[in-house]
Design a protein that fits this description.
The chain has about 300 residues and is an alpha/beta fold. It has helices at about 5-15, 20-25, 30-45, 60-85, 100-105, 105-115, 130-140, 200-215, 230-235, 275-290, 295-305; strands spanning about 50, 55-60, 95-100, 120-130, 145-150, 160-170, 185, 195, 220-225, 240-245, 255, 260, 265-270. Helix 1 crosses helix 2 (about 20-25), helix 1 packs across helix 4 and helix 6 (about 105-115) packs across helix 10.
Amino acid sequence: MATLRQLEYLVTVVDTGSFTQAAELLHVTQPALSHQIRALESSLGGPLLERLPRAIRPTPMGRAVLPHARAALAESERLHTAARRAAGLEGGELEVATVYSVSLGILPPVLRAWRRQHPGVRIRLREFAHADQLQAAMAAGQADLAIGPTPADWEGPIRDLGIEEFVIVLPNDDPLASQPPGPLALAMLADRAWVRYAPGNGLADLLDQACRQAGFTPTTAVHAEQTSAAPLLAAAGLGPALVPANIVPLDFDGLLRLPDPPVRRTLTAYTRTRPDPLTTTFADLLARQACVVPTHIQALATAQNSTP
């Protein structure tokens, strides 16, 4: 049976690429480290590491075992952290995972309020490009709480935070600026080259799906590697962009239109199991403070939807 200590040895050797460096980090002798790796290989029934002249790399079996080893170590650390919280031995640490757009538009004011109310609790933030990556990381035990689109087939607790609106961004001098300020049919932009998100970003899938439903496939003017760059590039005239409304600031220098049909998604906070008191406290603050649709976007929606 593999032990947590053996799994820690395996992960450290792979991460450092060296038995010598791993032994130094783990404060053990190299022979003791090698013995424990051999014992782990014997327990699992095959070699986990390939020793090259100047490097160490995992074998196919090692690559299969490695994600489970990391998850087991992360869960063990979380167990000890939860115990320390319950015993009141320290302020604690909360690991929060989310997608890029949420960390840009929603989380900053929440984290600011948290720091004021709980200065002794450290927040560690992990960001992911795609909701599927976020859900996989949460399932693997890499965070206490995940914030993002509603996860598929999730068995743990889920809390709705609200429905996120998306807006079309164009330059202020775009020909469409002369039209009445109502919702803009996506089909009217079918012949435009778009500011699209980098492949692997979940917002790229969302844009493609919205355009398909409008009857066209968007062409590419530029791929925005950073989510925050998309509205800026669109406002500069490189092409239209479809962006989460909550990442657009109040004084944004660009033309904003709601898409027709609307593009929306529900944002949630979710955990693997019943959350501990610290996680529950953060989730409660998040539910109160999270501004999924900013006030200026609500006003825009009211104005555009009331236009004849």
